[in-house]
Q: What sequence folds into this?
């Protein structure tokens, strides 16, 4: 495997050894070769493939038809390429195709156009690979977040989507809307977050 990665992709011996140490159960180059050949057919060059394989060696154990091809179909339909495509391939390793499609469709429906969807992907590409993204978007809509505010959140505060919203957002919303005038610290703290999330406003 080490020699294969060196000769076929131009890895250094040290890099190839590092990659193979993480997929040591592979006894032949048959599956890695099928993965790499697939990447090349998708117009990824050796430099891009080296980066993908280095960041996510376990991709070499994937199944082309069951795992990679359906995901690439989603990416290609959106016209994604270059560094964004590389990052999505790496980050989507642990994301099922069904979850990826669900997230793409949910964001597309929310934003209305593929142009806006691609804008969000360019700024917040990794959010599409989060298992709870579509659920989080539905929670925000339920509690009154406008589409514009959700789009802004996806672009500017995308890391918040790492966490499931179904527990924290209802509590945050209730705290914000019910805070009394004598509880200024609570109001001010929650206001800073809620103004990012909700279409409601409140004097503090």
A:
């Amino acid at each position: 495997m080490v020699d294969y990665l060196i000769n076929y992709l131009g890895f250094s011996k040290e890099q190839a050894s590092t990659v193979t140490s993480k997929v040591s159960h592979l006894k032949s180059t048959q599956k890695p070769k099928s993965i790499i050949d697939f990447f090349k057919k998708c117009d990824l060059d050796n430099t891009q493939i080296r980066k993908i394989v280095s960041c996510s060696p376990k991709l070499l154990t994937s199944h082309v038809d069951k795992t990679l091809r359906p995901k690439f179909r989603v990416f290609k339909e959106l016209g994604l390429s270059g560094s964004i495509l590389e990052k999505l391939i790496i980050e989507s390793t642990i994301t099922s195709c069904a979850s990826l499609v669900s997230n793409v469709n949910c964001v597309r429906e929310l934003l209305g156009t593929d142009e806006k969807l691609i804008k969000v992907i360019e700024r917040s590409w990794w959010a599409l690979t989060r298992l709870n993204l579509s659920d989080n978007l539905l929670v925000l809509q339920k509690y009154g977040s406008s589409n514009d505010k959700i789009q802004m959140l996806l672009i500017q505060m995308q890391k918040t989507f790492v966490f499931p919203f179904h527990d924290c957002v209802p509590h945050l919303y209730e705290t914000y809307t019910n805070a009394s005038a004598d509880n200024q610290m609570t109001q001010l703290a929650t206001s800073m977050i809620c103004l990012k999330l909700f279409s409601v406003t409140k004097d503090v």
